[in-house]
Design goal:
mainly alpha, single chain, about 55% helix, about 240 residues, 8 helices, two-stranded antiparallel sheet, Arc Repressor Mutant, subunit A
Length: about 240
């Protein structure tokens, strides 16, 4: 004969049943509730039936022995169950737990093995799906990151192409932010002087320069050379500001 397994299929609101709430509310109620649940489990293979076999003097003592519970607690539990229609006494010392037949779950050992095998296969499929979804999310994240990097690079290019700011006394010296910061760093005491000097020169001469920052650096280098020149030695270097 094939081995069969049984279990209780309690409803999600089982503990909300007024009879169960009443049972739990009396003194020692949680103990009585546990006894009731253990009695239901004990009766599963006989569809909710328990039998008095005469091992003890009475049914309560025999159930207490089977459940490893105190006899007095079992007596109180049985009295409550009988009073609320949760147990009925039949012929031939038969006791029927009225709720159990509707909440029994059972299957053979072979059926259980098949079910567990199917559940494992289902879990593996779900795991594969989750992995695929995770990989997909990673791909989306990677694409998103690459897109953000691309946007940042485009922004940098736009920044490079952005029209330089206007400086100088006559607002005709054009420098990018990087060029302006470089001048302030390398010519900390003279950057304003050279910017205004170039501005005045452009305005007065009408001359155009391809690179204003390069012109300023050139003038600064020439002025440095003049400063370090020895006294008495004529300076024949050409200064474009003096050209016609």
């Amino acid at each position: 004969m094939a081995k069969r397994y049984y279990w209780l299929k309690l409803k999600v609101d089982w503990f909300s049943d007024k009879r169960i709430k009443k049972l739990r509310s009396i003194a020692g109620g949680d103990t009585h509730t546990i006894i009731y649940l253990k009695m239901m489990l004990l009766s599963l293979k006989d569809e909710g039936k328990l039998y008095f076999e005469g091992v003890e003097d009475n049914f309560a003592s025999e159930i207490a022995l089977a459940l490893d519970e105190d006899t007095e607690n079992v007596k109180l539990t049985l009295a409550f169950l009988q009073r609320h229609g949760l147990i009925e006494i039949g012929d031939d010392d038969e006791y029927q737990l009225t709720e159990v037949p509707t909440i029994i779950g059972s299957e053979t050992a072979s059926a259980m093995r098949v079910r567990e095998h199917r559940e494992r296969k289902k879990e593996n499929r779900l795991l594969q799906c989750n992995t695929s979804e995770t990989d997909g999310n990673n791909l989306k994240q990677i694409c998103s990151v690459e897109k953000e990097i691309k946007i940042e690079k485009e922004s940098e290019k736009e920044g490079e192409k952005r029209a330089p700011a206007v400086y100088g006394k006559f607002h005709n010296v054009f420098l990018s932010d990087a060029e302006f910061d470089s001048l302030k760093s390398e010519l900390p005491d003279k950057w304003e002087y050279y910017i205004d000097r170039l501005s005045v020169h452009i305005a007065s001469s009408g001359r155009k320069y391809n690179n204003h920052v390069a012109t300023i650096y050139k003038w600064a280098q020439e002025d440095t050379i003049k400063t370090v020149s020895k006294k008495g030695i004529p300076d024949y270097s050409f200064n474009e500001e003096d050209s016609l």
